[in-house]
Amino acid sequence: MTYEQWREARLAEITDKVKVVAKGTVSDRPVELPGVPGRWRVVGGALTFNDTEVDGVTELADGRTALTGGADGFYGVVVKDDKALAQSGLQGIDTYSYDPAWVFEGEFRAAQQDRYVEVEHLTAPRTTRPVNAPVDLAVTIDGEEHVLTVLETMPGQRLVVFTDETSGAGTPGIGRWLVLPQHEPGTRFTVDFNQATLSHHHLVPAVFTCPLSPPGNHLPIRVEAGERALMYDLKARATTYLRHLENREWTEARAMCSADATVWHNDGKGDSGIGENIAGMRAQIEPIESMRYDITRQFEQPGEVLQQHVVNVATKDGGLFRVDAAVYFRFEDGLITRIEEYASLPG
Q1: What's this model's pTM, rounded to 2 decimal places?
Q2: pLDDT (tens digit, 9 = 90+) per residue, 162-173?
Q3: I need a labelling partner for 192 at 20 to 30 A (CA). Which of 112, 183, 224, 295 fits?
C-alpha cells in the first residue's frame, strides 16, 4: 500500500469512528449506554436489548445503529449515528509532508512474561489501570537506539503511544500512536513515523477514553512526521453545541468541551466551569417549553468563532420572549475551551 492509499484509508477510518456515539461491554449485569435509552443485558448467554434478543446489526431509535458481537455471555456494543459526522464539522486531518527520512527498521524485543504496565487513561477524571504490554519496540533514530513499550489494548491490536518534542507544540500534548503488526520477538520490520496517528480520543472524547503514553515512551527529538491535528469547520461545531442545548442533550454538549473549559456571561458573576454552567442551565430549564437559537451571522478565524444570534424561548405557560446575544467560542483540538456570552436580557 502506498502512502497516499494509506492516507485515504485513514480518512475513511476516522470518518467512520466519528459516527460512534456510545460503546460498552455487556456481560452478566444490565448496562445502559450514555445517550442511548434502553437496557442491554445477557440472558441465557444471548445479548438482549430491552428484553429482545439482538445479534449483529440492530436499528435503534432516531436512526442510530448498534453493532454487536461476542460469545459465551460477553458482548461488545458500538452505537453509531450517521448524523454525528455532519454535526462534528470534521473536514480532514492536518499532517506533516511525507518524508522518507522518518522510515526506519525496528525490532520487537521480548518483555517479561505476562507483563502489564500501569497506564493513565483519558477518562473524566483520568484513571490509571494496567494494560498488557507483551513486547518492546527498538528503533534507531539518528544513531541513537530508543526502546518503547508496546501496548496491546485489545487482542490483535498492538500500538506504541509516544510523545516527542512536538507534543503540545505542534502536535497534541497527549501524544500520538504507531499501530504495529503482530510479530514475534526478534522480528525486524518497517517503522514509518509518517503513519503516526492521532488517538481516537480526539474524535469523540466522551466515548474513546484512550491510553496515554507509558513511562519511558518519550522521544527527546522533534518527530515532524505523521498527523498533527484534526481540521474542523468551527462554525459548524459552534452550531452543533447550541443544537445540543436546544434539545437538552446535556451529555453531548458537555462532551464537545474540554475538561477545563470556562464560561463567562455579562451578568457580573465572573467565570464558571463548563460543568457548573451546563448544570445551571439544566436546573433552570423546567419552566421552558422550548428554546431555539437563530444564528444571525458567524465569523471564524483559526481557533475562534464569533457569532450573533437570537434565543427564542417559549414557556410552558404560553409566554414568548427573545434574547439578543453575541457569543465568542475558543477551540483547541476541536474542543470548546472558552465561551463568552454578551446577552441583552429582557427588562
Answers
A1: 0.79
A2: 999 999 888 999
A3: 112
